[in-house]
Amino acid sequence: MTWSDRPAPSLDDFALLAKQAFDALPDGFRQLSGDVVIRVDDFPADEVLDSLGIEDPFELTGLYQGVDLGRRSVLDPAAEPSRIFLYRRPILDEWAERGDVPLGELISHVLVHEIGHHFGLSDDDIHRIEDEA
């Protein structure tokens, strides 16, 4: 579905697109990220923006919150589940501005980027991998 001839997808539509993107990932990738909770919100919370020093909520399309796999230890107390937030309105805004990528592909890109943080990769690591792909 291209969404070019329909109203903007709802939060539920976005959650379905995110699930489809996750389900399309290679099995090993999904298994390693299986305990991550994926949540779709319209925008990041003000506290999140403040903690990241971001003034414009349209600048943040996704966020990983949790302890990445590289820093976990069986000796640590049980942590809350790791979460990936996908922000519907900033993703829609980027999709509309770009006009050169299907919405599902953009959601998948943001999701994979945030899963990269779950694996312990930095933004620089992720960008380098993207450039090499």
From TrEMBL:
Residue ranges of coiled coil: none
Organism lineage string: Bacteria, Pseudomonadati, Pseudomonadota, Alphaproteobacteria, Caulobacterales
Entries under InterPro entries matching the protein: Zincin_1, Zincin_1_sf
Protein name per Swiss-Prot or TrEMBL: Zn-dependent protease
